Amino acid sequence: MSRLRLHKRYGISSRRFSFLFCLVVVLVFNRTGRSQDLLDLVEDDAPKKEFVKNAFKSTRVINGHSMEMVGAGVLDFRIMHRFGRLNGGAYNLFGLDQATIRFGFDYGISDRFTVGFGRSSSKKELDGFIKYRLIWQSTGPKSIPFSVILIAGSTINMLKPEQVSDQPYYYTHRYGYYFQTVIGKKFSERFTLQLTPTLVHRNYVKLYGDPNDVYAIGVGSRIKLTKRLALTQDFFYVINRSVSEDFRNCLSLGLDIETGGHVFQVHFTNALGMNERAFVTETNGSWGKGDIQLGFNISRVFTIVDNRKKSQS
What is d(CA 232, CA 220) in angstroms, rounded to the nearest whole number? Predict the structure, then answer.
């Protein structure tokens, strides 16, 4: 349509038509841009799935594993220390003259997979484990209200055969194994609770009446007091007991103190052993009789592989 016809039919000059056309284009693109901005705002405000962290401040409640994991590329160096029994009296300085220790290294292959090993002075025992997070508690869309952790470990008694038994003692007798499922939930910022069904297998037992397979159920909890202090409780109830010795259920009560890169745990426990085979099957201390050890755990983490920098590069 020519300029003359536009002017005659609609009274619009070509110059005015060009201006109106450009105005319409600007308005359309401006509205489209605003719609996109509004869409981005809506997407930003939409709830997102977030994984729950810091249910415990350590990968151990006290003795047993917690539902927490070592981060990917992080090494956790841990020292677990137990003094002697409080009822040892003043002569033994209420247990302070005696000491049992375990040191260990836990490494995060990923945020869901950890491997670790350690060595205890009690029975000169070596232990190792793998720990996998099957289900991770989360909030937001398609949230999961609890966490599930799978753990498998092994122990090796390194004492000389004559120190263990006057009966034939083979190398395979040194081994023990344990398998656990940790089912836990962080109910709030102040309270966490977990259950730990446990199976411990021992290749060697003292009497034929003692079970090679020992079943137990663990209960762990954390009550946050302040930003850096929390009360912890660790209890394992043994379902089928040995008959050769007077074993007791392991009960530990502690206080977690967070100090920067360290987590310091001070506690009282009736268990001398510091791996699952030991504290589940060999605890014989009685709280009522004062068979209690003062102990502490110190954890220090080191970043070996910085995954954040790796993802940004």
Answer: 7
Cα–Cα distance for residue pair 44/37, rounded to 1 Å: 10
Burial of 255 (0-12, 13-18, 19+ CB in 10 A): middle
Which helix (H) or strand (E) is 301 found in, with range? strand 293-303
CB atoms < 10 A from the CB of 226, how many? 8
- Say if residue 208's pLDDT is above 90: no
Rg of the chain, C-alpha, whole Å = 31
Is the Cβ–Cβ distance between 235 and 194 less than 8 Å?
Answer: no
108-144, pLDDT tens digit by residue?
999 999 999 999 998 899 999 999 999 999 988 888 9
Distance CA 48, CA 33 (A): 24
The continuous run of DSSP H or E covering 17 comes out as: helix 14-45
Say yes or no to pLDDT of 48 above 60.
yes
